[in-house]
Amino acid sequence: MQLTHRPVQPHDIAAICCFPQGPDELFYMFPKARYPLTPAQLSEAIAQRNGSTVVEGDGTVLAFANFYKAEHGGVCALGNVVVAPAARGHGVARYLVQSMIELARRQFEAREVQVSCFNSNTAGLLLYPQLGFEPFAIVEREGPGNTRVALVQMKQAL
User: What would you report as the CA-atom Rg of the chain, rounded to the nearest whole angstrom?
Assistant: First the structure.
């Protein structure tokens, strides 16, 4: 399947809201959101963030991400990363993250891209180092049901 990426459009939002398959997956993607993800919650996040991007394959939206911090000439911090359930395990997340790194480089002239990943998000913890991200901090956060979780912060110099 040929993958492409483009800026998110309003008609993409309903499909993206279906990607998180439960409260835990939504927590990984968007810790402040309440399950199920609604178009209003996602639209508000998009309005407050930069570089909101979708990946398409065969005309279907397969993945989404944006930057919750985008400093021109500084740091871009990747957030709201999510892949459609049927597209997982097919290189879509890799393509998405690589596309976002290029966007940080091109549009924001960033010197560094950062990403944070919760300790129970095995797929993310395995993917990001393969793409050149190196852990630099672990911080405690409150997870679903007032549980203690570790947020692994990673960065890549551009």
Answer: 15
User: Environment class of residue 134 by beta-carbon count within 10 Å: exposed (0-12), middle (13-18) or buried (19+)?
Assistant: exposed
- CA–CA separation, 88 vs 104, rounded Å? 24
User: What is the block-wise mean pLDDT of the chain (158 residues), using blocks of 10 residues?
Assistant: 97 98 96 97 98 97 98 98 98 98 98 98 97 98 94 98
Question: What single DSSP character describes residue 156?
Answer: E
Q: Where are the domains of the chain?
A: 3-115
- Measured over all CA atoms, what is the biggest interatomic distance in the chain, rounded to whole angstroms? 41
Helical (H) or strand (E) element with 102: helix 92-108
Alpha carbon 22 to its chain centroid, in Å, reads 16
pLDDT on residue 11: 98
Distance from C-alpha of 89 to C-alpha of 47, rounded to nearest angstrom: 29
Domain 3-115 has CATH 3.30.565.10: no
